[in-house]
Amino acid sequence: MGFLDQGILIKDLTRLRKHYLCSKLFLWDLVSLLPTDFLYFAFGIETPLVRINRLLRIPRLNEASDRMETRTSYPNTLRITKLMIYIFVLIHWNACLYFAMSNYIGFGDDPWVYPNITDPMFASMRTQYLYCFWFSALIFTTVGDTPVPVREEEYLFMIADMLIAVLVFASIVGNVGNVIMSLRDKDNVFFPNHELVKAYLRSHHVSKELRQRIDNWYQHLYINKKIMREYEILQQLPLHIRTDIAVSVHLPTLSKVTIFQSCEKSLLEELVLKLTPQVFSPGEYVCRKGDVGHEMYIIKEGKLAVVADDGVTEFAVLGAGNFFGEISILNIKGNKSGNRRTANIKSIGHSDLFSLSKEDLTDVLSEFPSAKRHLEEKGRQILIKMGMLDESAEVQEMEAEKVETKVKRLESILENLQTKLPRLMVELESSNRKIRGRVEQLELKVAVVEIQLPHDGQRGEGAPGRDEGVGGEAYWEREEAEGEEEEDADKKGKKKGDNDVDDVTKEGDGESTKSTKDETERVVEGNKFGLKGSVSLKEKISDGETIIVKGDKRPGKGDGAEIEPRNEKEDKSEEGELVERTGKTKGHSDGKDTQDSD
């Protein structure tokens, strides 16, 4: 007895008393327990309604019945009993109302009311109660015919009773249906999908002998109360409670296995959750010689026989607590049997076994590496005693396992590199595109500047640009370094003669024209970066056209400039200017040659 305070069960009497006195249940119970019976003596009241406050105890009665239902081992029986009590009380109250209605109208005044109590046949209290109870039961169960009402009061009473009877009948049907379903669920624990299995066997025309074996198996489950759905039944419980139940039920059996006797308790607690119950019928083989072992077995009840290949000759009999197949699930290296069964084992009668699969054992041992090594060592010792361990094969398998581990590691590394390679290639391609774009922009600026310089009067038509090749760069370095000496060299060049000047001018014109064509061909060809016209700049220069640039003519400011060919009229009008510039260029070249000769 107690109450929950933040999930903690409080049983202290002082706190219990304080909690109860401050709750609404205390007031409810206090009113229901008031001694209203004293009103009979104090005021001479004789009506039974004085004790109506006792009905306030009904909620407490429901609470007590619900607690009993959760604690009893037979909840369905208690549920049916409670339903019958409710129906009996309701019929009893209705019978009392019927007798009171008959008394109000008058006994025997019409066929509907209770007969006249002056008649000795209907005068006794027992007869009166039984007649009224029978009348009320007829109305609520709607089984038989009831007397037809005559007065308005009688009609109203019958209407109310019929409406209540509908609810009562629905409640009876619903509760009885729930109880039946609960009983069927209980049967399904012992007969899991029995009807579906039988329908499947009939539809596939399975032999009568095999169907009889299956029916015997189900009968064994039902008669001996064998539950095959332990996991589904206990799945609703918390994990720690399921573990405690499994330890309580299966740990003594698992502890009998030799290889598990010295294992730590936490490992055994994990293993008991993996045990699966299995039932074998008489004459049924548990395993056959040569089969690959995927699980080990522990005998809980029954007897198994180790038989020869003929199935008749018995070599040994295994009873409760024995086990077999433990070596096959450990996957010990060097096992001559290769994890295959070495004997035929069949059930003599109905046998209950627990099975532990190799996968479940591997999953559990992955969290207990020391226990895994211990179990493998024990299994190896057992194989040595049996003469079933090939040590040379064990070494070879260990070497092969190491190689396989290395291969897997290399495959993992290769997979990671293959994953990274596409990303690196994408990044490299993106970087290359950016670099090519910047180079093309710079080359375009250089080409535009080289085209602008002759029109700015900064150098002759044949002089190389600052950014052109090795010859152009050397030309501009010499021109800037010698400064004032060029003027003197120019004067001396004029005196030297026209032949030398023409040679120098031709040489300069060829170098400048070649360099300009090469740069312009790489950058401007194809009308990129906004150049107008369908004819490339290379073709225009090779055809001898004069190129002018619209836009910013400052050196290095060639972005967005437009390059257009000039027509023949403009070329003729500026022919004189070009000749004059050529003369100046010759003078410069002559001066340089004269200075060099000096």
From TrEMBL:
It is found in: Membrane. Residues 496-525, 550-572, 578-598 have a biased composition (Basic and acidic residues). Residues 393-452 form a coiled coil. It is a multi-pass membrane protein. InterPro entries: CLZ_dom (IPR032406), CNG_cation_channel (IPR050866), cNMP-bd_CS (IPR018488), cNMP-bd_dom (IPR000595), cNMP-bd_dom_sf (IPR018490), Ion_trans_dom (IPR005821), RmlC-like_jellyroll (IPR014710). The keyword Transmembrane helix applies. PANTHER family: CYCLIC NUCLEOTIDE-GATED CATION CHANNEL ALPHA-4, CYCLIC NUCLEOTIDE-GATED CATION CHANNEL SUBUNIT A. This is Cyclic nucleotide-binding domain-containing protein.
